[in-house]
Each structure stands twice: as structure tokens, then as C-alpha cells.
Amino acid sequence: MKYEIIEEKIVFDNFFKIKKAKIKHELFDSNTIEVDRLSFERGDSVAILIYEKDTDSLLFTNQFRYPTIKEKDGWILELTAGSIEAKEEPKQRVKKEVEEEIGYNVTEIEFISSFFVSPGGTSERILLYYSEVNSSDKIFKGGGMKYEKEDIQLIKIGAKEVIQQFKDNKFRDAKTIIGIQWFLTNKI
User: Fold this and answer.
1) Whole-angstrom Cα distance, residue 184 to residue 161?
2) How much is the pLDDT for 151?
3) Are the beta carbons of 71 and 47 closer than 8 angstroms?
4) Whole-angstrom Cα distance, residue 64 to residue 150?
5) Most CB within 10 Å of its CB: which of 16, 30, 51, 104?
6) CB count, 10 Å around CB of 82?
7) Is the pLDDT score of 24 beyond 80?
8) What angle do helix axes 159-167 and 174-186 make, rounded to 10 degrees?
9) Which helix (H) or strand (E) is 179 found in, with range?
């Protein structure tokens, strides 16, 4: 199937960008349609599910996320994650995020999957990874980058407790849910 971008322009340019496009594309019945679409341009991100072998725990971050206040208090458990900067290798970014956010040194990193967060409205794609560590691999302070105004708490949850919390709908972040499902399917 074919498409054509007739016009494309940035309509909002701040910390994030919003792009507006006029697109013509084929329909499944062989006709064509012309539509206007907006895209929240977030860029690609990395996330990592980390299993701490000596404590049989999964490692999460806890931090305030403004968009989540409509459901609860704004603090949410997530996998360690961050945005990829221009010309940066995803595996290097994920290692740096782990060091900055939870203070661990990760060496072996396994690629799990890449996926779009919400393809109907944003270009953001997440590259999801997995790593195993021991508690002795926590060699950095963690807690986030103060110049980015981050305040991140490391949360260790035993693997069996993660299963129960997952069943009880305690995890509300899509990348975290995908990572946990992968872990339950492939590692338990």
C-alpha cells in the first residue's frame, strides 16, 4: 500500500515537538483518502528490565509523573528508562540510565523488543532490554540527575511478589507491563 506526505510542518517546538502532516494514502478497498494528522515527536527511548539474582528481585524506579495524577497520586513504578540522544547507541544509553537512575553497573544486556508507545499519536519507539545483576553491582549513587530535576527511588520487588502485584494491576506503565510479561514468559 502507498502513501504520500503532501505537507508536513512543526506546529509546536519546545521540549517536545508536535508535527502536523497532510497525508494521502491508499485504503484497503483500493481507493485513496487525504487526511490531516498530528504526531507528538518524542524520539526513541530505551528501557531495561533488571533481575537481581542474589536477592531474586526485579528492580524498578519510583518517580513522580505528572500525567498519571488523574488515576492516583502521581508516583508510579517503572522500568529504568530514558530518551536516546542524537547519534547515541541505544545500549550505551541504557547503561547510562541504569547508572544515573538506580546506581547499578550492567554489563550483559539482552535485547527483548522494540515497540511504539501509542502509534496513533506519537512517534516514540521504545527499545526494551534485559539484564541480570547482583546487589554488589550497585556501585553508583543513583537517584537521577539533579540538573534534570529528577528524583528517582530504587524499588526492589521479589520475583514472586512481582507476580502477585502484576495480577493485582499494581503496574500501570506499558513498557513495565511488557517487560514483566516477557520475564514471566521467558525466565520463570
Assistant:
1) 12
2) 85
3) no
4) 9
5) 104
6) 20
7) yes
8) 120
9) helix 174-186
Name the helix (H) or strand (E) containing 134. none
Please give the grid coordinates belonging to residue 85: 540522544
> Residue 187: its pLDDT value, please?
87
Residue 11, pLDDT above cutoff 80: yes
Residue whose C-alpha cell reads 526494551 in the numeric block: 128
Region label for 70, one of left (φ > 0), alpha (ψ between -120 and 50) or beta (otherwise): alpha
- Reference 88, options 153, 118, 43; nearest CA is 43
Extended strands (E) in 65-180: 75-78, 80-83, 110-116, 125-133, 153-158
Return the C-alpha cell found at 79: 522500568
Name 78's bridge partners.
Answer: 61
Q: What are phi and psi of 113, to 5 degrees?
A: -170, 165
Q: State which H helix or E strand residue 185 sits in.
A: helix 174-186
Tell me the C-alpha distance between 143 and 101, whole Å: 5
Integer Cα distance of 36 and 23 in angstroms = 6
Name every residue whose Cβ is closer than 8 Å to that of residue 96 and which is 6 or more positions away in sequence. Answer: 82
> What single-letter amino acid sits at 54?
D
pTM for the complete prediction?
A: 0.92
Let me know: does 162 contact 188? Beta carbons within 8 Å.
no
Give φ, ψ of 123 to 5 degrees. -85, -5
Amino acid 72: pLDDT: 81
H helix or E strand, kind and range, residue 105: none
